[in-house]
């Protein structure tokens, strides 16, 4: 019984709450399913899009009240134009217009291949103050054969008609000047209308790469 007791205890939080992961058919007698309202946590892949010399990738379906958080993963986004800027914008009309007013912050850390010029700094060049412009996620990514950027963006409660729409993005790129750049962007879409579409693109030129959209259960 000692092993069983220890195993059970490992699934209880310090406040005495039983973790959802422990609730399986083998742990509770006669259980075959759980009510849909029981949250077990996890990520649900909603859609995946791949750019091949494409001007943009837009997600115009699947962003609704089903999930309180959506996560987008960028896999090897490769600009066709050197030193280009990867960016996004939001829509409240299913993609007819991408022009949500945004306020944001931007800071980055970088270090070059020669082991010199390390820095961590805030950049006013890429933040927004009540602007409908596209939000830069990562600047200056190279277009060399082995150069790209990868990372993620979180969008919180986009279907709310009460609150603004918060977002957080973290990316890393192989910079056009052979730097590793780690960029951090956060802000909010200043609208109480439901956001139901998002578009990703380069500031000029086309791109390659894959973007995955997940709903967070």
Describe the protein's architecture and organization.
By secondary structure, the protein is mainly beta. The protein folds into two domains: 40 residues, no CATH class; 174 residues, Jelly Rolls. The chain has one helix and twelve strands. The protein has an eight-stranded antiparallel beta sheet with strand order 1-12-3-8-9-10-5-6, with no helix packed on it. The chain starts with a helix and ends with a strand. 29% of the residues are buried.
Strand order of the largest sheet: 1-12-3-8-9-10-5-6
CATH topology of the largest domain: Jelly Rolls
**What is the global morphology?**
globular
Our count of domains comes out at: 2
| CATH architecture designation of the largest domain | Sandwich
Helix content: under 10%
CATH class of the largest domain: Mainly Beta
- Provide the succession of SSEs: HEEEEEEEEEEEE
Q: Strand percentage, roughly?
A: over 45%
How many helices in DSSP terms? Answer: 1
Q: Please describe the biggest sheet, giving its number of strands, its sense, and whether it closes into a barrel.
A: 8 strands, antiparallel
| End-to-end Cα distance | 34 Å
Unreliably modeled segments:
none
The chain-level mean pLDDT equals 91
Number of strands: 12
Relevant terms:
217 residues, mainly beta, Jelly Rolls, 2 domains, eight-stranded antiparallel β-sheet, 1 helix, globular
């Amino acid at each position: 019984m000692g092993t069983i007791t220890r195993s059970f205890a490992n699934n209880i939080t310090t406040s005495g709450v039983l973790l959802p992961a422990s609730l399986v058919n083998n742990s509770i007698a006669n259980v075959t399913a759980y009510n849909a309202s029981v949250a077990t946590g996890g990520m649900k892949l909603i859609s995946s899009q791949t750019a091949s010399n494409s001007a943009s990738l837009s997600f115009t379906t699947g962003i609704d009240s089903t999930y309180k958080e959506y996560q987008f993963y960028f896999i090897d986004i490769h600009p066709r134009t050197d030193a280009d800027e990867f960016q996004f914008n939001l829509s409240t009309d299913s993609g007819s217009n991408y022009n949500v007013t945004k306020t944001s912050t931007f800071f980055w850390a970088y270090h070059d291949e020669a082991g010199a010029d390390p820095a961590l700094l805030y950049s006013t060049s890429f933040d927004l103050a009540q602007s409908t412009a596209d939000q830069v996620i990562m600047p200056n990514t190279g277009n060399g054969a082995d150069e790209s950027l990868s990372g993620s963006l979180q969008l919180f409660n986009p279907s709310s008609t009460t609150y603004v729409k918060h977002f957080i993005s973290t990316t890393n790129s192989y910079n056009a000047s052979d730097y590793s750049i780690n960029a951090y962007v956060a802000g909010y879409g200043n609208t109480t209308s439901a956001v139901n579409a998002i578009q990703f693109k380069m500031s000029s030129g086309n791109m390659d790469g894959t973007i995955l959209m997940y709903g967070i259960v």
